[in-house]
Structure formats: structure tokens, C-alpha cells
Amino acid sequence: MADEVKIPPPPPQPQSATAGPSAGPEGEKPAAAAAAPTAPANPAAPAAKPPAATAKPAAPAKPAGPVPTPWNSPLVEKYKSRYGSGLDPLTYLGQNYLNVDRSLIPDILRLLRDDEQFDYCVDITAVHYPKREKPFEVVWILYSYLRNERLRVKTQIADGASIPSSVNLWATANWLEREVYDMFGIQFDGHPDLKRILLPEGWKGHPLRKDYGILQQDKEWVQINLGIESGQ
Amino acid sequence: MRVPENDAKNDAPVHSLSNLNLETPEKPYLDSNELVINMGPQHPATHGVLRVILKLDGEKILGTECIIGYLHRGVEKIAENRTYTMFNPYVDRMDYCAAVSNGLGYCEAVEKLLNVEAPPRAQYIRVILTELQRLASHLLWLGTHALDIGAMTPLFYTFRDREEVLKIFEKYCGARLTTHAFRIGGCQYETYAGFENDVKKFLTFFAPKIGEYETLLTSNRIWLDRTKNIGVISAADAVALGVTGPVLRASGVKWDLRKAQPYANYSKFDFEIPVGTNGDTYDRYLVRVAEMRQSIRIIEQAVGGIPEGPIMAKVPKVIKPPAGEIYHSIEAPKGELGYFIVSDGSTQPYRLRVRPPSFVNLQALDLMVRGALVADVVAVIGTIDIVLGEVDR
């Protein structure tokens, strides 16, 4: 098992080549970074494979670790037949997730809660992939007490696009969505009180976006409200 | 201070107060005593820097709003700029009252991403330390919660006993609070000579102490008055609000991640999940006290059977998980603590999200205190058992 994990000391891998210098102003990961997580959308696409495979011909069978595989279950069958290509069920390391088209999100979430007993919304969060056409991936982590099963629902949205709020489905979504809004600037339609939660009201910028540097701050806010030159 | 009703029999109410126009159909007189007051962020009963805005009618609470973020350090942003190994000590600073649990969750999540498993010996050490941490966390909660309500005595006893746990931590890894006890792949430190003995000695010392706390509180009239039927939350509400941990179990939902989705060898140990029935502050107290007894059971079983063998799995020196994403969660003393990690195949997490139990549980505060008194807010904040370091991250 450990062998699988042992990744060879990186030969001319494009990732590591760019990783060093890219510690520049924006803490953004190299190109391969943005491309690799795209893999789920198309499990066969060897997005992360070629560099490793070409670099290390000795063990071509184990390129960059496991890849997501299609996930089959009665639940998936049911919805796949109804929604077709808008739904991409995958499994990775034993964890199941659904890639769902943005337009199907309200339907799917409601069905999962009402018909499939996913009554506990564990978490709502987002990931920023600035290189993608739709740079934000919103993730719902759901759990069903009855089935003792976890499921992730993911969707991709464009910058500035909004997503329907799920506060009416799970009350817990209130603060979770506020945090996503605070950190990424993603709008949730129909949220009862969408405002910042961890950062102060009036702060400019959304810190978990990849183009927001780790030392960056809203200088104006700091100077006016804290009366100091800089928060660093 | 009620305005006397106009005497209907009197046709000419010369002296009636209604002539003063104090009361209009839209705005009844003396109903304007809605008061908005501010509690915190610097307030001893908020367990840190929590600010709560209370809307009151007299002393009755009509609604609350929590203002959080005073301790926001951007842990998730920091994670994106550190390697997996470098980020490990940071997780201790979230729930700083249960640093060992945070570390366990993080290490297991990265291990899952790497597809390795810690060796059995390391798993046992982890279980022992994590359960000791649960005891320490619950003791800290019990002492401060009782102090908030006005029972000062338990504080001294719980802190005295918690110190014994911290001494074991200190002897094991050199730190009492922010322990950084585990490493990705296992444990860095072998147990010190006499570790088992220390733990066993602590258990024999500590087991009867729980009974002592209970004689101070469980049937204490004042304690009962301050906690019974205070801050009630139903099972349905708790589930809808995503509440986990002892708060959920006190409402009658028998759910504990150690049983539901066992991790770190918990399936090997025999223990029960204590549940409450009323979902009030008193039941949450009973559940946590019962949980301490169960933790003792788990530690007893684990310390007697630590297997021989390595304490580190074979993980590369430079942790570089393959591209992919994982969600892993554990039953921390306060509830479900989850880590959602997205790897891009580099040495740093592309995105690391922490699902903090305190943050989610705190959201239930508003529902739990509506209709209660101001003094009950203090009791309810205490009973949710929040740590602001984790709420704000």
C-alpha cells in the first residue's frame, strides 16, 4: 500500500517546475493544479496522468494515484435516468459524489433531502479554480442518519453567477452559506440574510479566492477602523 | 405599569388616561419597552470573544444575533500556503481545548488522501490520547459551565483533575495544550517508560471523581432550577440545524461518529452512546458526564492492549498526495469535526476546509434562548460548549 503512495522524486514534472517560482504575488497553483481536479468531470481523461507516465516508464501502472471511477447505485440509477447527462456520479477513495449541472441543483438537493433522507447538511463550501471557464465549485456535503451514508454534491458556476440558497431545505445552511459568501463572494439567491460572517462588514475582497494574496488586507478598512497603518 | 383599561361604563372618561393618547391601535402603550443590548465580545461568560446582540422585552429574549470573527486568523488560507506537514500544528490552535482531537482528524484525513493507514500501535496510542483529551475538554466545560451558572466549587475540582491529563500529555510530547501529538502516518513519539502506568493510575484516581462532581450538581436544587427546561432543542430542530456531538445526543439522537462510521480502531472497543431525552441544558450535562464514564471505559480497554510494532506507517518524507479530494470527520468532544481537502498533487493542499462543530452548533443558540431570560443565555452558551478559536478559525 505504501508503494502506491511513494511518488518518485519528481523528474521533469511540470508541476514542480512551476511550483517553486510561482510563490510570487498570487499564491496560485501551477497550471496542472487547475487541470487536475477537472478530472472528475471526465474520469477517463488523463489530465494528471501524462507527466508522471512519461517521466517514469518503470512503473507506468501507478501514475498519480487513484482516479475517480463511475459510481453505480440504485440511487444513481434512479436519478440518472431522469436527469441524464446533467448528473455525473463518481466515487473516489470510497467516497461518493455527484457532479450536478447548475440548473439541476435546486431539484437534486430537494430530492436528496425529501426522498433519500439526506437530512443532515454537514457542510457547504467552495473551491476556486481561476483557470477554469466556470471558476467556482460549490460543494455540499450531505449525510443521511437513516442510511448512514455520506454524499457530496458539486456544481460549477461562473464568476459573479449566483446559486439558489438551501436554507429552506436545511436551516444549518444559513451560516454556512454566509461563510461561503464571505470567503468567495458567491451569491446565494433567497438567503434570508446574506452578509459577511467572519470578516467585518464593509471589508473589501474575498480572502479564499486564489487571487487574494496571503498577506493581502483591506488597508483602508484597517486604517479607518483600527487606527493603525497596517494589520501585519 | 399597565395602563388601566378605560372604564366602559363611564361615558365621559374625564380622568381616563386614554385622553393622554398614550395608546394607539398600532402601538399599544408600554409595549415600546423592547430593548436591544449588547453582550460581549469582552464578557467572561462568552468563553472567548463572542458578541451576542440580544433583543429583549423586559428580561425575556425575543431574538439574538451572534457577531463572530474576532479570532478569525484565516486558517484555511494559511493551509493553502503551507505544506501538509507544516500545517499540522496549526490545527491545534482551532479548538485549543481539544488539540489532540483536531490533530487526529487532520492526520487521518491526509492519511486517507494518501491511502495509508497508521499502524495498530499508533492507532491505540491515538485512541488513548484522544479520549484523555475528551475527558480534559469535558472537564474544562464542566468547570466553566458550572461557574457561569454560579456554582463555583466544581471549577477547582475539575481543573485539578484536568491537570493530571495535561501532565500525561506533557510527559508524552512536551506540550500541555497545543500538543501536536500526531504525525501524518502515525505518531512521532514512542510512549515513554511508564506511560501505561500513568494512564492506569490516572483512571483509578479519576473514576470516582465523576461521582463527586455529580454529588455537587446532579440533584442540587439551584443547579436543577438553572438547567432544567432551559435551552430546549428538539431532535428535529437539532438535525435541521446540523447540530452534532453531545448537544445532538441530549436531544435523543443516538449518533456518534465513533460508532456510525468508526475510525482509528474505535470499532474494537466496547462503549455506549449516552443519550438524553429532553434536549435541555440539564440533559446535556448528564450526557457529557456519562460520556466521561464511557471514555474511561475506552481508555481502560486500549491501555491494556497496546500492541507491539511500529508507530509510523510508510509515508514519504515529502507528503505529496495524488490529485483528488477527500472529506473525513471525527467525533471531537464538541461534535463532528471534518476536514475537506482538495489536493492538486503538489506538496500543499489546494483547498482545505475545516468543518468546525462549534461554529455550526453556535447557530442553534438563537433558537435555544428565545423566550428565555438573559441569565439563561449564559447557561446556554456554556452548554453548547463552544470554543471561539474554532468558531472563527
What does this structure look like?
The complex is a heterodimer of chains A (232) and B (393). The termini of chain A are far apart. Chain A is elongated. The longest helix of chain A has 12 residues, at 173-184. In chain A, the strands form two sheets. Chain A has a six-stranded mixed β-sheet with strand order 1-2-3-6-5-4. With 232 residues, chain A is of the alpha/beta class. In chain A, strand 7 (162-164), helix 7 (173-184) and strand 8 (187-189) form a beta-alpha-beta unit. Chain A has helices at 2-5, 14-19, 31-35, 49-55, 74-83, 105-114, 173-184, 219-226, and strands spanning 69-70, 87-92, 95-100, 120-128, 136-144, 149-157, 162-164, 187-189. Mean pLDDT of chain B is 86; it is low at 6-10 and 12-18. Chain B has a three-stranded antiparallel β-sheet with strand order 1-2-3. A three-stranded antiparallel β-sheet of chain B has the order 6-7-8. The interface between A and B is large, with 57 and 56 residues.
Overall average residue pLDDT of chain A:
74
Poorly predicted parts of chain B: 6-10, 12-18
CATH class of the largest domain in chain B: Mainly Alpha
- How many helix segments of chain A? 8
- From the structure provided, what is the oligomeric state, counting identical versus distinct chains? heterodimer
Helix and strand string of chain B, N-terminal first?
EEEHHHHHEEHHHHHHEEEHHHH
Work out the count of structural domains of chain B. 2
Query: How would you write the strand order of the largest sheet of chain A?
Result: 1-2-3-6-5-4
Number of DSSP helices of chain B?
15
Mean pLDDT of chain B: 86
- Termini separation of chain B comes to 47 Å
CATH H level, superfamily name of the largest domain in chain B = Cytochrome-c3 Hydrogenase, chain B
Query: What's the shape of chain B?
Result: globular
User: Distance between the terminal alpha carbons of chain A, to the nearest Å?
Assistant: 44 Å
Number of distinct beta strands of chain A: 8
The Rg value of chain B, from CA coordinates, equals: 25 Å
Strand line-up across the major sheet of chain B: 1-2-3
CATH topology of the largest domain in chain B: the name is Cytochrome-c3 Hydrogenase, chain B
Shape of chain A: elongated
What proportion of the residues of chain B is helical, as a percent range? 40-55%
Low-pLDDT segments of chain A: 1-62
